[in-house]
């Protein structure tokens, strides 16, 4: 027993020593990284703005294979990058992120959380980076850093370690998100198995029933159906218009569910739906779309079979992303050719492709 107690004590002491050694190592890496950043801090004056744009001149000049990520800015010269409102803003964002990562390196939980936030920010604006780029960026950053001071081997090793930890967490987080989307897609598709569209009586009836739920339970939406505001359920049942529209609406719901694990396709289809509505002069606010997914569709599905909490949650999530894309689209339409005031002096920012596929933002 005494021997066992002694062994446990030794193991505990060894664990404490290893934990202390690891903590000291993280502090050392943090110190080395922060020390190397003293000459490249973010800020609002011209000198500090150049620190941020300098990262992008290094990136685009030395790595032309990355230029295609910057839609509308692919052919910018170093001078254009330095003067660009877009790159000044992005330069500060990326430089701030680098400082935050260095500062938090001795706090693994905070470091990983901030890494995941960086990935999420990219995904919220539809930026899909190859996994290898999360790691390769740090070599580019060291090239930039070397233009401002001598970077010794110890400092290079520190940044390589930080970059490796960052890329591991970024890739892991992105993978988890993708698996989550695949899982949610399966739930969504399962919930639709009894309400498929089709030219047979069953398929047509599914579409008609969806409109009966919509107009019967939500009379505030009747105003969107000019000439049919006072239709009864029997009128809807006999209407050629609602037979056609019912199929279109059901197909749209199925396509959204089927494409949910492919964000680019999912978002593109949403924009296509919004444009189709605008072409027939139907302008729906984001709140209407939210109501459709949070209430109307679930009420309709519940009339066909029991809707589980898991299925409700999945449809709420899809609806949330649908509304987010709708709001982005409405902002784009409102601003016209000027996507944001910050970018209005830069060429190329007026296209929807630029708005939805801007790359390498941090």
From TrEMBL:
Residues 342-362 are annotated as: Disordered. It holds the Pfam family Globin. The keyword Nucleotidyltransferase does not apply. Keywords: Heme, Iron, Metal-binding, Oxygen transport, Signal, Transport. Residues 1-19 form the signal peptide. InterPro entries: Globin (IPR000971), Globin-like_OT (IPR050532), Globin-like_sf (IPR009050), Globin/Proto (IPR012292), Mb-like_M (IPR044399). One of its GO terms (molecular function) is oxygen carrier activity. Belongs to the globin family. Residues 33-175, 179-331 form the Globin domain. This is Globin domain-containing protein.
């Amino acid at each position: 027993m005494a021997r066992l107690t002694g062994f446990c004590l030794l193991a505990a002491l060894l664990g404490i020593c290893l934990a202390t050694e690891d903590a000291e190592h993280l502090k050392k890496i943090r110190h080395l990284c922060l020390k190397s950043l003293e000459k490249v801090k973010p800020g609002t004056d011209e000198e500090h703005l150049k620190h941020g744009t300098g990262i992008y001149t290094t990136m685009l000049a030395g790595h032309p294979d990355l230029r295609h990520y910057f839609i509308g800015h692919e052919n910018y010269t170093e001078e254009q990058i330095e003067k660009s409102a877009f790159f000044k803003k992005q330069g500060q964002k990326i430089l701030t992120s680098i400082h935050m990562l260095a500062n938090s390196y001795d706090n693994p939980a905070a470091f990983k959380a901030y890494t995941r936030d960086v990935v999420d920010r990219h995904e919220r604006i539809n930026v899909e980076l190859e996994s290898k780029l999360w790691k390769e960026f740090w070599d580019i950053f060291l090239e930039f850093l070397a233009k401002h001071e001598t970077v010794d081997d110890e400092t290079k090793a520190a940044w390589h370690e930080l970059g490796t930890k960052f890329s591991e967490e970024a890739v892991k987080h992105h993978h988890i998100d993708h698996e989550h989307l695949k899982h949610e897609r399966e739930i969504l598709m399962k919930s639709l198995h009894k309400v498929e569209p089709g030219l047979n009586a069953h398929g047509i009836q599914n579409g008609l029933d969806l409109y009966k739920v919509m107009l019967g339970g939500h009379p505030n939406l009747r105003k969107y159906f000019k000439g049919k505001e006072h239709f009864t359920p029997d009128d809807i049942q006999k209407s050629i218009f609602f037979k056609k529209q019912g199929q279109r609406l059901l197909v749209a719901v199925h396509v959204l569910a089927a494409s949910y694990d492919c964000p680019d396709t999912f978002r593109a289809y949403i924009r296509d739906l919004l444009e189709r509505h605008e072409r027939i002069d139907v302008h729906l606010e984001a709140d209407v779309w939210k109501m459709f997914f949070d209430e109307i569709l679930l009420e309709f599905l519940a009339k066909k079979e029991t809707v589980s909490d898991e299925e409700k949650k999945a449809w709420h999530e899809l609806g949330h992303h649908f509304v987010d894309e709708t709001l982005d689209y409405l902002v784009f339409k409102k601003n016209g050719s000027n996507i944001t005031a910050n970018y209005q002096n830069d060429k190329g920012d007026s296209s929807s492709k630029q708005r939805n596929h801007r790359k390498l933002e941090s």
